[in-house]
Amino acid sequence: MRISHKEFEDAVERALEMIPEMFRAQLNNMTIAVEDLPSRDLLREMDVPPGETLFGVFTGVPLPERSVTEPPLYPDVILIFRKPLMAACHSYEELEEEIAITVVHELAHYLGLSEERLEELGYG
């Protein structure tokens, strides 16, 4: 599947509307940015095996790790990777759904939810 950068950003906007309110409410102080691909350094840092890739990543300090006396130096960001998502999806609807799942998954890292809890919620 191939769509323009603008169409992909529109899909991200629609996908955000699909996210359950309990998660969507947490996006108020979060930036969501679209990049074409994760960098090789990021893939290496995340221990992503060769031949696999990321759909998204949270960058920032998870809420449970924050200190009242030392606030984070940088804003919290969820990066969504356009090309891997397009390659994995066969329809626009599937793309929107996968973007929503990716955003919730990364937002869960911000909230400090474990991979196990994400699995229980259906976002693993």
What does this structure look like?
With 124 residues, the chain is mainly alpha-helical. The protein has one domain: Zincin-like (2-Layer Sandwich). 47% of the residues lie in helices and 11% in strands. The chain contains 6 helices and 3 strands, in the order H-H-E-H-E-E-H-H-H. It has helices at residues 5-18, 21-24, 40-45, 82-88, 92-111, 115-121, and strands at residues 31-35, 56-59, 77-81. A 3-stranded mixed β-sheet has the order 1-3-2. The mean pLDDT is 88.
Q: How many separate domains?
A: 1
Q: Span between N and C termini? A: 23 Å
Name of the top-level CATH class? Alpha Beta
CATH architecture: 2-Layer Sandwich
Largest sheet: 3 strands, mixed
Give the secondary structure arrangement, pairings included:
Blueprint: H1 5-18, H2 21-24, E1 31-35, H3 40-45, E2 56-59, E3 77-81, H4 82-88, H5 92-111, H6 115-121
Please give a quick description of this structure.
The chain has 124 residues and is mainly alpha-helical.
List keywords for this structure.
about 120 residues; mainly alpha; 6 helices; globular; Zincin-like
